[in-house]
Hints:
This protein has about 110 residues and is α+β, with helices and mostly antiparallel strands. Helices cover about 25% and strands about 40% of the residues. It has helices at about 1-20, 35-45, 105-110; strands at about 50-55, 60-70, 75-85, 90-100. A 4-stranded antiparallel beta sheet has the order 1-2-3-4, with no helix packed on it. Strand 1 (about 50-55) and strand 2 form a beta hairpin. Residues about 105-110 have low confidence and may be disordered.
Amino acid sequence: MKFRILSMLVLFVLLASCAIHTYSVFPIDKIHLGTNKFRVINVCGKPFRTDCYLKAGKKTEVLYYKEPARILNQGFIITTTLTFENDSLTSIKQDDKNISNIELSLDSIQRK
């Protein structure tokens, strides 16, 4: 009985260690839906990319922020996407991309 409990505990710890999350330092707790674009840029800084278009008669702007993260020798790029309709924040989305397996060729490193 003790062996069974111990083996289940070990199995649980092993499985739980596989679920590693990437953690963002983006100040998502300082902004909320409904915040205007000017306030978000004051809190978060200048985005690396901005898209702007009209959608159903509404001005829609999308701000993109990127940040590096490293978890257990794995490199990640975390992208935070903020969507505004008529200067009001309507959506916050975060995605991550593992970049540890990307290989660089000699040409990409030694550009002239």
